[in-house]
Amino acid sequence: xxxxxxxxxxxxxxxxxxxxxxxxxxxxxxxxxxxxxxxxxxxxxxxxxxxxxxxxxxxxxxxxxxxxxxxxxxxxxxxxxxxxxxxxxxxxxxxxxxxxxxxxxxxxxxxxxxxxxxxxxxxxxxxxxxxxxxxxxxxxxxxxxxxxxxxxxxxxxxxxxxxxxxxxxxxxxxxxxxxxxxxxxxxxxxxxxxxxxxxxxxxxxxxxxxxxxxxxxxxxxxxxxxxxxxxxxxxxxxxxxxxxxxxxxxxxxxxxxxxxxxxxxxxxxxxxxxxxxxxxxxxxxxxxxxxxxxxxxxxxxxxxxxxxxxxxxxxxxxxxxxxxxxxxxxxxxxxxxxxxxxxxxxxxxxxxxxxxxxxxx
Length: 361
Ligand SMILES: [Cu+2]
Hints:
- By secondary structure, this protein is mainly beta.
- The protein has one domain (7-360): Lipocalin (Beta Barrel).
- Helices cover 6% and strands 54% of the residues.
- The protein has 2 helices and 17 strands.
- The strands form 3 sheets. The chain has an 11-stranded antiparallel beta barrel. A two-stranded antiparallel ribbon has the order 8-9.
- Bound molecules: copper (II) ion (CU).
- The site of copper (II) ion has 5 residues, from loops.
């Protein structure tokens, strides 16, 4: 088992300090009751499992989450393509290929239902599309061969039980998140890649980041807190992703920790804007897929997968308080990395975004 639960999760991270202060400020000026009919009654749309429902209520939602990665980092330093495929004797990394950029988009359908006021059940069904551009550096003086790989399909379906720890109407809500990710995403995706000295195309299993799932049952325990004032609201969430066992191809993805905190301001009940900090830390791969040669590319190297990243999220939520579309929600959030440290060379994230719709009935 990979032991990469970041120490951040057990200590008081900087974002958590900020949130502690906000929480304290919030206690001083909080509402008596939770007000659900306002834009910021839900967290910024990039946060999952942030709220619960009242007994008998359903919610359906859809999120579109594009992300762009470009360029390679080792630690926080840029790595050139040349260094990636230069031999180790000359100070390079000695891989055959260098990834250039990657676009990923996730379409996610979300269903929530509250059998009781205490428990809300949630299912998230992702469909993923990915496209990676790389270059093969054939040996000798042959020119580099650029190529693209694509994979798309169902990702790992996640089921959660959200347990409300606080009274239903309290302006402070604390939720225990008990999530389980199922190995429904394929980990045997192939595409045509140039291979060997002449760069002839060959169907090969794609690198780890191009696979659609983890291949393991993953536990996702966490805790979420949200609070409301007259105009302001705030929240924090910590979620761990703990892989269990080893997948059928002989490896385990690294564990992951996600910590986030946000503040939002409601301009009207229909419109709020938010500022969020999100810190993530994830580990390297334990074991190896025998069909993926680790010298092929850093993306194929189990030791070049881990990292830490802090994003700033700028968001807006919209809620329809009356009329025929009453209760519909829209959310938009753009996430920009402000710090990144990767076990590399690994593709660097440039930006991510989340656009979502939600409707409870
Ligand atoms: Cu919901």
